[in-house]
Amino acid sequence: MSLSMVTAKSLLLLVFIFCAGAGAGAGAGAGAPDFPSTSDEESQIERFQQYLRIRTAHPYPDYAGAVSFLSAQARSIGLETLTLEFTPGKPLLLLSWYGSDLSLPSLLLNSHLDSVPAEPSHWIHPPFSAHRDPEGRIYARGAQDDKSIAIQYLEALRHLKARGFSPLRSIHVSFVPDEEIGGADGHAKFVASEQFRRLNIGFVLDEGQASPTDELRVFYADRLPFSLIVNAVGSPGHGSKMYDGSAVENLMECAEAVARFRDSQFDLVKAGIMAGFEVISVNTVYMKAGTPAPTGFVMNLQASEAEMGFDVRLPPTEDIDVLRKRIQEEWAPISRNMTYQLIQKGPTRDINGRPLVTATNESNPWWSVFEQAISVAGGKLEKPEILSSTTDARYLRQMGIPALGFSPMVNTPILLHDHNEFLKDTVFLNGIKIYENLISALSSFQSESILEEIHLEL
Ligand SMILES: [Zn+2]
């Protein structure tokens, strides 16, 4: 440790001591204080660091270690624990705090156990060290995505228990495996299970994303992900010959048609007419053509086959048949010797055939309670957004259950899946207070009749 670090730490300690009295009584405002101040808060940060140190990154996430740690925390709070295993070696931990009226639909707080891998050589602190620098930044893979919310849920529940809170509706917390690899063995199996049905979930909070401003972000839908593979065939020929309809020439037509469409969508975003999440994105992810040779490719032969792959993302309200028609007629017409596969990666409609969207207006009473609880906590909300990527919330929306993506991280750069992912201690602590407000409001919410109507509609 360098001398300057010692000095910085000593100063920090002095500020802790100085602020201890003021911080203890601080309200639940979204504007985070400069320094954590109480021993209670220091313990919360330590538990966050402990969880961050469990190596949950793919390809070999330590699910057993994570579940064991979280179960011990849940027991210390007084929550019921149940470990489910829909796929061997991939446990799902479910915590429950039963409400006084078991007939009411319950609240589910969801978080995934796994993380994406990290490349330690690109990090300023080792990605599983949970190093906290003098400015309070806690560096770790998963600090934002999404181990922060896991501990924030638990700490909020710990506080609610400690202050004698008694929920009207049951509160469940799920820690699920495999979100980062699509959730097929995780949440997809959970929502299809009898155990899930019995929970009678009415509303879900799942992960969101950091906000670089002082406004909290909330997500009401995920874009729908597809893989598009276009195959072209054509007559092979000598490299010197000019002729129509070679495989690569056919595929270039496809590439040009896709590029024109992509430009039309991107122009709308660049002109500020639409947000990035409101348009269809198409990006080329691979091109495959040519005849391999020991030193590279055969250079005097025009290949008879060529292939391109695209990542396609649709807003959830978009009609997939319209996209299919465009592919058949413009991008990969059979008349030009092209075929295609449009591979759906997850649900596209809910069990009632409706788009996977959670209403963020008065038609959804949970939204009103959510919005009000944020405001009571002193938080400001940005306009609700569609998440560009995907989360497990899509499986819950698939069941017709309203679900919002929300991770309370204001004034924080978006570093999920990036090098040097971090979360500031004060932002982490403030998130606990926001969840305390949210959980107490959402689990005390009484308007049974409105909710029953929603469920009847389903
Ligand atoms: Zn995540």
Automatic annotation (TrEMBL):
It is found in: Cytoplasm. Residues 1-27 form the signal peptide. Binds 2 Zn(2+) ions per subunit. The keyword Hydrolase applies. The active site is at 114, 179 (proton acceptor). Pfam families: Peptidase_M20. Its cofactor is Zn(2+). Keywords: Hydrolase, Metal-binding, Signal, Zinc. One of its GO terms (molecular function) is metal ion binding. Its EC number is 3.5.1.14. Its main location: cytoplasm. It comes from the Eukaryota. The keyword Flavoprotein does not apply. PROSITE patterns: ARGE_DAPE_CPG2_2. One of its GO terms (biological process) is amino acid metabolic process. Zn(2+) 1 binds at residues 112, 145, 207. Zn(2+) 2 binds at residues 145, 180, 417. It is an enzyme of class 3 (hydrolase). One of its GO terms (cellular component) is cytoplasm. This is N-acyl-aliphatic-L-amino acid amidohydrolase. It comes from Platanthera zijinensis. The lineage of its organism: Eukaryota, Viridiplantae, Streptophyta, Embryophyta, Tracheophyta.
